[in-house]
Amino acid sequence: MTLFPEIERLSPHFTADPAHEKLGVLFHHSVKPFEETIAYMRHPASEVSYHALIAPDGTRCTLVRDEHIAWHAGASVFRGRTRCNDFLLGLAFAGDTYAAPLTAAQLASAHEWLAARWILRRWTPEWMTDHRQVAPGRKNDLNPFEWMRVAAMIGTLQVP
Questions:
Q1: Which intervals of the chain form a coiled coil (predicted)?
Q2: Which domains does the chain have, with CATH numbers?
């Protein structure tokens, strides 16, 4: 049972083959509001997508299924590997973390989304990061203070 509503509005912006490695998660903020982000991710010309997006009220929208490669990271490097899209799922918070902090519902919903995958995927905190860290100088999400809040939430997950 989930505490937060989940909807599915699939984006056409993904790669099905090869299968996604699902080694961890790359966090983003969308800048745009929830519904506007969904519309943008589904628009044929955008060529960008996340696996999931979380609204300020905690509602989650699946845009790309976990087994597929969403186009969320662009040019990126994490743990010595390029092409973060191939091995990190993209989870985004609707809004701009420089303009407004993450809501308690967004953090709780992200925790719920992560917890459902944490033990199954045998994830550890070392495989969690944000866009700012994998694309320095090119991307600035999340606000470093908000990243610290997300990292603290991640620290509450049970390590397998």
A1: none
A2: 6-154 (3.40.80.10)
Contact 75, 138 (CB under 8 A): yes
* pLDDT, average across residues 107-136: 96
Is the pTM higher than 0.90? yes
pLDDT exceeds cutoff 80 at 105: yes
Residue 98 and residue 40: Cα distance in Å, rounded?
21
Partnered with residue 90 across adjacent β-strands are: 26
In eight-state DSSP terms, residue 85 is G
Buried b (16+ CB within 10 A) or exposed e, 92-113: bbbbbbeeeebbebbbebbbbb
What torsion, rounded to 10 degrees, do the Cα atoms 58, 40, 99, 101 define? Answer: 20
E strands of 1-118, at which residues? 6-8, 14-15, 24-29, 52-54, 60-62, 69-70, 77-78, 81-82, 88-93
Neighbour count for residue 71 (Cβ, 10 Å): 19
**Number of separate helices (H) and strands (E) present in the chain:** 4, 10
